[in-house]
Amino acid sequence: MNFEEHAAKPLLRAAGIETPKGEIARSANAAAQVVESFGAAVVKAQVPTGKRGKAGGIALVSSPQEAQSEAARILQLQIGDHEVSSLLIEEQVGIEKEYYLAILNDSASKGPLLLFSSEGGMDIEEIAEAHPQALTRIELDIRSEPDLAFFKDRLPDVAEIGGDQLAELAHKLYGCYQTIDAELLEINPLVLTTKGSLMALDCKYTLDDSAIKRQPDLAEQGTPDKLTELEEKAKALNLKYIELDGNVGVLANGAGLTMTSMDAIRHYGGEPANFLEIGGESYRYGKEALELVLSKPGVKSLLVNFCGAFARTDVMTEGLIEAWETLKPEVPVFFTIHGTGEDEAIDMVRTRLGLDSYDVMDDAVKAAVEAAS
Amino acid sequence: MIIRGNESVLVQGITGKQGTFWSGHMRDYGTNIIGGVNPKKAGTQHMDLPVWGTAVDAAKEQAIDASILFIPPLGVKAAVLDAVEAGIRKIVVLTEHIPVQDVMYFVAAADEAGAKIIGPNTAGLVTTGESMVGFMPAFNERIFKKGSVGVISRSGSLGTLICLNLVQEGLGISSFVGIGGDPIIGTTTRDALEALDRDADTTAIALIGEIGGTMEEEASEYAQTMTKPIACFIAGSAAPAGKKMGHAGAIVMGSRGSFASKKSALEAAGVSVEATPSGVARFLKEASAS
Questions:
Q1: CA A218, CA B132: separation in Å to the nearest integer?
Q2: For residues A22 and A58, what is the distance between their CA atoms, to the nearest angstrom?
Q3: Contact flag A110-B108 (C-beta cutoff 8 Å)
Q4: CATH no. of B8-118
Q5: What residues does each domain of chain B span?
Q6: Which of A170, A241, A360, B254 could disulfide-pair with A151, CB 3.0 to 4.6 Å?
Q7: What is the ipTM of this complex?
């Protein structure tokens, strides 16, 4: 789950990391009022995505009038998929130099990875590309409690930063990363102010979705993914549903098999319309799953691909057939069912729908693609 | 990470609904289950098996080679650390949605103790006709027939399909290694490949990968050194661009992780990358005939 800047920064402050003084404004008038008391300020669109600056979502202003007009402009913007509805107004800070600092969960080293670059202010992709020599990578063991000395030892000496400030900040950031179950906690830019102290000018924080259950209060501050109405419905049932542009509906269990069904549809010349995955504990929702897949307009045929390991194909199929008997859809459906519970499932499809289950997945996919074209 | 029929297996979370259901299946299959763990039911019997309060207590009375967990996400870290402390060397973690910082913690603890985590978010291990430690349909002979193809899969459902395809082509399976679908897992594709390469009962390998991460690329470095034929399918070539991939996560990998990157790395290592799962079975059938 992503957090907008205004929701992420208080977490840094709670960990003792300095950020500029700021306030939220939801209208141009409110923005002007804040600037009235701040003086020179930065107006920043609050959306859970990067590239705000490039999209025109950040403006430096020096007067309430300017704040008024810039805020009005930014509140009209759409950045990525997001309409701007709130602004963070912050006091301008005198900047000496910009850096990059982040901690993230790293698959390759199977632990936290700290990244620091003495070249900040641009995207980390650009830093890695343009200044690879300026990028420091520190692999951490999450079981250890690295102390200040550890960070002092591992971080490069940056001449212009006074004392142990950088190591202290990294130490605090690591503690914060653990406390808030971060998947990614990034300060970009981290700045050295003209007064000689380090400050987080921006913050990007992603909460590990699997940790939401033990971070309920924190999760309320985050921004849920933007979903379509049907995707929202699916999520409430713990089903994974994604809409695409083609005309073959896909209902399968398990992430791997669902992806494979889509790959096979494309391989045999078709395009998937959507896919719904009912694996794991949600295998009982066959009925709801069918309703969802068919409610998208433009689905011309349906592929049902079940391979039961943990998920029982008989349970999934029964729910699905019940829904079929209620909805009576006219869309042709092609079954291929294997694994746990297959005998009962295949028998049900035959006796109640008068259809056979394809022995080979490829044949079911070819038939579904043909029926849709 | 190949499970043998003589290896003793402890079930942590044996008394729950899934623990009971799958322990029954595993035992019927021939898995040497010696008992289970439930802190609240220590000293009782379940399915005619002893129940201990902890894996450490169990290990005081019995030699335990492997453990399988039917434990909800937030309880997994403590349960794995218990198994590690008990000296268990193979720990199969089926659970999905475990907080990633917990996973990093217990994977590091297991590594240090010389134990191997299989998973999380795996369907487990099967050695056909010998033992199943997981929830695969090993007892279904249309899907698991004894043979000499080793199967590596990140997904249980897709792994099931591959095994089915192999059997439909007249081949059989020596061992199935489900490595799990999470971003951070204990046993990697490369680890599994090395184990199957050393396994005398395995003469060919079906390697089933997925987009994301760099495990297939890393495995290809080892594949290059192998003489056993390998056929591969990478799921996700048609998947919509990942919503999930974090910003900084992407740079650490650079361009690695995409379907194209995996395909070219594997092909450069002499691995046949097939367009469909059935293509994997057909390739290995031809390889076995030549």
A1: 40
A2: 14
A3: yes
A4: 3.40.50.720
A5: 8-118, 140-289
A6: A170
A7: 0.91
